[in-house]
Amino acid sequence: MKCKRIRVGIFAFALALLLSATPLVGLADNSNTDVYEFVTRWGSSGTGDGQFASSYGIATDNRGNVYVADTYNDRVQKFDSDGNFITKWGSNGTGDGQFDSPSNIAVDGRGNVYVGDVLNYRIQKFDSNGNFITKWGSNGASDGQFNVPSGIATDRSGNVYVSDVWNARVQKFDSYGNFITKFSVANASGIEVDNRGNMYVVEPMLSAMVKNDSDGNFITSLYYWDNPPFLFIPNDVAVDNKGNLFVIGSSGGTIEVQKYALQQADGQ
Fold first, then answer.
1. Cβ atoms 125, 108 nearer than 8 A
2. Which of 18, 81, 185, 252 could form a disulfide bond with 38, CB atoms 3.0-4.6 angstroms apart?
3. Are 88 and 55 in contact (CB under 8 A)?
4. In sequence order, what DSSP letters do the residues of 209-255 get, joined into one string?
């Protein structure tokens, strides 16, 4: 099986794969031990196509394309699953399609791309080619407002979940940005929703990932110091439609994203 890993230095980002199998406790069933290995990598420091500057967000679509929130370059880059550059969009600013530190990204079932535009305190929505569709949000603590929207995810119904870090909550919207509900999550950062509607919320200050149901009820948690040599401070998480798990976080002065292709242990 395959595990893709992305490394980012202070101004660098690379996608890498393990060459040997390494055990990891699965999120869905803590009794299973899953095995993964590296496959490939791409990326370097810079501003050119396929280069990155402190990238913190990653997502995939149903066709296997990879979207990266290239944070300090204030743009989104799109690649195929082998790392071949497809397109990019964005620049620094406050206008439609512009960003100020885009740090997280999600793709819905129709291929629409949602970007957490952190220092503009908003969410922007695009089609798969980067054409602007809509936006919502402003700085504040009311419903539909944000104070550092650092994590974003979508569910099968097209609803959008945003982890609103300094407001210590997750907000839920429809695909047009209309507010639905909210629930408290301390230290929330990255967030993901799987095909069953379960939510995975990363809490960096606790070096933990917490799993909740679609109403925010606690299911289970995973603490990374229990799973060496993996990430110590996770920032974001993603689960694709094949069950592959992506986790991004900091370790040893770098930012690292790992993709895990799940392989059940013998007998599972």
1. no
2. 18
3. no
4. EEEE-TTS-EEEEEEGGGSTTS-SEEEEEEE-TT--EEEEEEETTEE
- Report whether 178 contacts 220 (CB < 8 A): no
- Each domain of the chain, given as residue ranges in start order, spans 55-257
Cα three-residue angle 242-115-163, rounded to 5 degrees = 80
DSSP state, residue 71 = G
Closest CA relative to residue 239, chosen from 231, 247, 230: 247
Phi and psi torsions of 238, nearest 5°: -145, 145
Sole residue written with tokens 């690649």 = 79
Q: Which CATH class is domain 55-257?
A: mainly beta
**Dihedral sign (CA 117, 120, 125, 129):** negative
CA distance 253 to 57: 17
* Average pLDDT per 10 consecutive residues for the chain, totaling 268 residues: 38 28 36 42 82 80 89 94 92 98 92 96 97 98 94 90 89 96 80 80 70 76 56 68 66 60 49
Coil, strand or helix: which one is 72? helix
Instruction: Look up the pTM and report it.
Output: 0.74
**49 CB burial (10 A radius; 0-12, 13-18, 19+):** exposed
Q: Please say whether the dihedral angle defined by the alpha carbons of residues 200, 202, 203 and 208, taken in this order, is positive or negative.
A: positive
